[in-house]
Design a protein that fits this description.
The protein has 287 residues and is an alpha/beta fold. The chain is 40% helix and 23% strand. It folds into three domains: 3-81, Arc Repressor Mutant, subunit A (Orthogonal Bundle), CATH 1.10.10.10; 90-157 and 255-286, D-Maltodextrin-Binding Protein, domain 2; 160-251, 3-Layer(aba) Sandwich (D-Maltodextrin-Binding Protein, domain 2). It contains nine helices and 13 strands. A hairpin with a 2-residue loop joins strand 1 (48-51) and strand 2 (54-57). The longest helix is centred in the first third of the chain and has 23 residues, at 59-81. The chain is elongated and about 80 Å long.
Length: 287
């Protein structure tokens, strides 16, 4: 059994199509198809079925993927260890939400510790498919899980309700209900018009909704609205006096930051080390 052919088979299985595997590996499609057919001929059994929805693994194919992935991950790490005394090396493919600047500091610190590691970071507010998009670790906010993934909760944090001193001088806020009579701006997602402040739930009529936290921050600093933003975005404005937290005794709910990996894929030493690094540092970074 040709080891290189097995690697290409696993790549095709993870990509979901031979053409996508050819794109990822840089191998011409006819060459890749020929290698996979030869692997099936050598084994004397079908591994892949090609259908209208792409590739489907046969029972034998599923078994080979399950058995080969841990061994291939170990071989890849063994190769990298020959070039890096730390034993942690390779390309780390990450997905993360927009505006999470502290995560970039996390990546930089990990890279300084392990200089043989390189990063491929996909910034998006959509929930990526880790297998189809070729992602090793996905950072997500919220409790919602996804079948086939396993997660590690790295930290919990609260958004900060903020407004400018000028805004609050003209529109004092003494209680959560006072927000119903002032201009508010909200993050654009399901349930955006509901703010839970302590024990009080408010149905808002915001003047603006957007999926851009930096724009919400700028509007608050300009004195146009009261809004909620992640604590790491509000910190500088609060420290410099451009922003004030109007209702500190009525906190917004906690949000978990989670790191997800593919359940069936063997976690490589690189990914395990990165998850440990994230677990130790994300909470402080997001505070």
């Amino acid at each position: 059994m040709d080891l290189n052919a097995v690697k290409l088979f696993v790549e095709a299985a993870e990509a979901g199509s031979i053409s996508e595997a050819a794109r990822r590996t840089g191998i011409p499609l006819p060459t890749l198809s020929r290698q996979l057919r030869k692997l099936e001929d050598d084994l004397g059994m079908r591994l892949l079925e090609r259908g209208p929805r792409g590739l489907a693994l046969t029972p034998a194919g599923n078994q080979l993927v399950a058995d080969a992935q841990p061994s291939l991950a170990s071989l890849a790490q063994a190769e990298q260890r020959l070039h890096d005394a730390s034993g942690v090396a390779g390309r780390l493919r990450i997905s993360m939400p927009p505006h999470f600047e502290p995560l970039w500091q996390l990546f930089s610190a990990f890279g300084r510790r392990y200089p043989a590691v390189t990063f491929d970071v996909f910034v998006t507010d959509r929930r990526v498919d880790l297998v189809a998009d070729g992602i090793d670790v996905a950072f997500r906010v919220g409790e919602q899980g996804t079948a086939g993934y396993v997660g590690r909760t790295l930290a919990r944090y609260r958004h900060r309700l903020v407004a400018s001193p000028k805004f609050l001088a003209a529109r004092p806020l003494a209680a959560p209900q006072d927000l119903l009579r002032v201009p508010c701006a909200c993050w654009r997602s399901p349930g955006v018009t509901v703010w839970q402040l302590g024990d009080t739930k408010l149905e808002l009529e915001p003047v603006l909704v957007t999926n851009d936290y930096l724009h919400l921050l700028r509007l608050a600093e300009a004195g146009d609205v009261v809004t909620e933003v992640p604590p790491f975005l509000a910190a500088r404005g609060l420290h410099q006096g451009r922003l004030v937290e109007p209702l500190p005794d009525h906190p917004l709910p906690e949000h978990p930051m989670r790191a997800l990996v593919v359940e069936r894929r063997s976690t490589s030493p690189l990914v395990r080390q990165f998850l440990d690094h994230a677990s130790e540092n994300v909470a402080q970074a997001l505070s």
